[in-house]
Amino acid sequence: MAEATKPAEGTKPAEGTKPAEDAKPARSARPARRTDKLNLPALLDAVRILSPSRDSGVHGEEHWRRVAMNGLYLADEVGADPVMVVLFGLFHDSMRFNDFHDSQHGTRAAFLACCLNEQLLGLPEAQMDVLYTACAEHSGGRPTDDMTIGACWDADRLDICRLGDAVDIRLMSTVPGRTLGAQRRAQELLETTPSWEEVFTRLKDGE
Ligand SMILES: [Fe+2]
Predict the structure, then answer these.
(1) pTM, whole model, 2 decimals?
(2) Could you tell me if 60 and 159 are in contact, meaning their C-beta atoms sit under 8 angstroms apart?
(3) What is the CATH number of the domain that holds 50?
(4) R_g of the chain computed on alpha carbons
(5) How much distance in Å is there from the Cα of 96 to the middle of ligand 1?
(6) Considering its fold, how many domains does the chain have in total?
(7) Residue 83 included in any domain
(8) Distance, CA 93 to ligand 1 centroid (Å)?
(9) Is 42 inside any structural domain?
(10) For residue 62, how far is its CA from the centre of ligand 1 (angstroms)?
(11) How far is the CA of 124 from the centre of ligand 1 (A)?
């Protein structure tokens, strides 16, 4: 008996022939998630290496993590993009040269995110535009109607408690960001700053 031969590429199998098991279209176990494209550990390494401010007690890495976590809570409440708020937390103060007057630090952070996008973030242009604006304009002192950018900026402003200052409600963009509950939560995060692992786990769990 002749051995069954595999049809040549592009050849239609003969009628009634059952396709081989391995010819079935592959099914993924779960739908692709946006964080699949993000190489978070490598991204974190890159920002840490390039950041002049990562060790700052005021604008360094602990502040970045609290902003990311505050942003995730707000994103849940206002339907903002959780990936954006975590990336904002990571980038927004990463390119500060000092803890005082550095008016261009947001623009430098936005530029760094653009430079790393292709290799480590994988954001489409529209999302990159949102992240760019959120970083570049975050210290401008005004609220916004864009709920994703608003969640980013409010998350940053909520961490003002690290300096012992009160939140200026007039600058807050989101309704949940203006509540005492959000301020209490920000205070709790100050007492127990989350690790990046906790931030990334919450991001992935929320998808
Ligand atoms: Fe900040």
Answers:
(1) 0.84
(2) no
(3) 1.10.3210.10
(4) 22
(5) 10
(6) 1
(7) yes
(8) 5
(9) yes
(10) 10
(11) 25
Structural domain containing residue 129: 35-205
The 10s digit of each residue's pLDDT in 43-64 is 999 999 999 999 999 999 999 9
The helix/strand count (H/E) of the chain reads as 8, 0
Residue in the block written with tokens 């550990």: 41
| DSSP classification of residue 196 | H
Distance 156 CA to ligand 1 centre (A): 5
Share of the chain above pLDDT 70, in %: 83
Q: What confidence category does residue 207 fall into, taking pLDDT thresholds of 50, 70 and 90?
A: confident
CA 48 – ligand 1 centroid, Å: 16
pLDDT for residue 187:
97
Residues with CB in 5 Å of ion ligand 1: 93, 156
Q: How far is the CA of 82 from the centre of ligand 1 (A)?
A: 17
3 in a domain, yes or no? no
Find the 130 Cα to ligand 1 centroid distance in Å. Answer: 17
> Is the pLDDT assigned to residue 82 strictly greater than 80?
yes
C-alpha 88 – ligand 1 centre gap (Å) = 9
- pLDDT (average), residues 148-170: 97
26 pLDDT above the threshold of 90? no
**What distance in angstroms lies between residue 126's CA and the mean position of ligand 1's atoms?**
23
Residues 84-93 pLDDT 10s = 999 999 999 9
Q: Is residue 107 part of a domain?
A: yes
The whole-number average pLDDT for the span 9-35 is: 50
Long-range contacts made by residues 171-174, C-beta under 8 angstroms, separation at least 24? 171/141, 171/142, 171/143, 172/143, 173/143, 173/144, 173/145, 173/146, 173/147, 173/149, 174/74, 174/77, 174/78, 174/80, 174/147, 174/150
Rounded to the nearest whole angstrom, what is the distance from the C-alpha of residue 65 to the centroid of ligand 1?
Answer: 10
